[in-house]
Amino acid sequence: MTHRTTIDPTSPDPARWPTARLLSTVARRVEHAWDDHLAGWNLNHAGFQALVHLLVGPRTQRELARLHGVTEQTMSRVVARLERSGYVTRCGDPEDRRRRTVAVTAAGRDAASEAGRVQPAEDLATRGLDADQVGALRAALAALVRAVPADGETDRAPRAPED
Predict the structure, then answer these.
(1) CATH number at residue 75
(2) How far apart are CA 43 and CA 37, in angstroms?
(3) To 5 degrees, how large is the angle CA 119–CA 83–CA 90?
(4) Where is the HTH marR-type domain (predicted)?
(5) CB atoms < 10 A from the CB of 86, how many?
(6) Terminal CA-CA length for the chain
(7) What is the largest CA-CA distance in the chain?
(8) What is the dihedral of CA 21, 27, 29, 31, to 10 degrees?
């Protein structure tokens, strides 16, 4: 793809930034706004995503960690926070006492439902865009999600061309 704009990572004009910088800047800003929204339920992005995964049924902490692309230790901290908020329970796995199964509580289901309403999330992520731009953004992001490997998949960055 050929760009007509000269890419300049030091430019104050975002239109001249590299695409990766644009994506990471917007992602960070949207995530901060989303975390501010979720704070009304004593949640953050990681906790909310864990609740969403638990809505389909109990999972082990190991499964949750794999789904999130984080270590089991990190997921243990996320689950501990959710447990303190009364959103999940942890219990031993009857088949393997070393494993802990995590299940969503009624309060967790309510919090996920209220905090995860679609419109606030859409408003945060598409602020300043018209309907056509939102459609184009959604199509481009969906294509990137399909094209860019998740953690644990083959995810080597493309090499720079050799001289």
Answers:
(1) 1.10.10.10
(2) 9
(3) 115
(4) 16-146
(5) 13
(6) 20
(7) 61
(8) -160
Give the phi and the psi of residue 69 in degrees, each rounded to 5: 70, 35
List CB contacts of 87: < 8 A, sequence separation 6 or more.
43, 47, 51, 104, 105, 107, 108, 111, 112
Quote the CA–CA distance of 19 and 21 in Å, as a whole number: 5
- Alpha helices, H only, 45-102: 45-54, 61-68, 72-84
Q: What is the pTM of this model?
A: 0.73
Residue bearing tokens 């481009």: 140
128: left (phi over 0), alpha (psi -120 to 50) or beta: left
With a CB cutoff of 8 Å and minimum separation 6, the contacts of 6 are 16
Domain that holds residue 83: 40-116
Q: Rounded to the nearest 10 degrees, how much is the dihedral formed by the CA atoms of 26, 148, 143, 47? A: -60
84-128: pLDDT as tens digits: 999 999 988 777 777 889 999 999 999 999 998 888 888 988 999
